[in-house]
Amino acid sequence: MHPCRVLFICTGNSARSILSEATLNHLGKGRFEAFSAGSQPTGRVNPYALEELASAGISTENLSSKSWDRFVDDGAPPLDIVITVCDSAAKEPCPVLFGDFVRSHWGLSDPASVHGNAVVISQAFQHAHTIITYRLMALLNLPVESMTRDELQHALDHIGTIGDDEDDLT
Question: Where are the beta strands (DSSP E) in 102-162?
């Protein structure tokens, strides 16, 4: 069986989806293969996302802000899971991608929308990355290879709530 292929999608593909892609590739070590994309990519990865990943010892090589078009074209890698990471609570538009894969929504506030000095912004990226890491650890603990689509869907939807309550992270 090929690695479980996961696509993280948001609008700009500069922060949350990039953090998710790099972290899952780092933690998944061949069992998972992660990608990220945006419906309206910014064209650049947020430097605070790169700084956060580097400080966690996660490679930033080959990360880029890209369109989801490359995942629906002929020759695109087959996907098993697609996860949107936009913040619907902030009325941020969530992209929709169609295909034969399990979909889930892991809403998360956009650290790139935080205003303030460098310390405040770095803290926002660190907080977002902490939530992402907790969620990805829960994903890594799933026996995805033997789960039914319904079981996987239910588990992914539950994982998407981790971090909604700050007590989840203690």
Answer: 102-105
Do 106 and 82 meet the contact criterion of CB atoms below 8 Å apart?
A: no
pTM value is 0.91
Boundaries of every domain in the chain: 4-162
- Does 3.40.50.2300 match the CATH number of domain 4-162? yes
Q: How far apart are CA 143 and CA 73, in angstroms?
A: 29
pLDDT tens for each residue of 20-41: 999 999 999 889 999 999 888 9
Three-class DSSP category at 115: coil
Contact 17, 37 (CB under 8 A): yes
DSSP letters for 14-52: SSHHHHHHHHHHHHHTTSEEEEEEESS--SS--HHHHHH
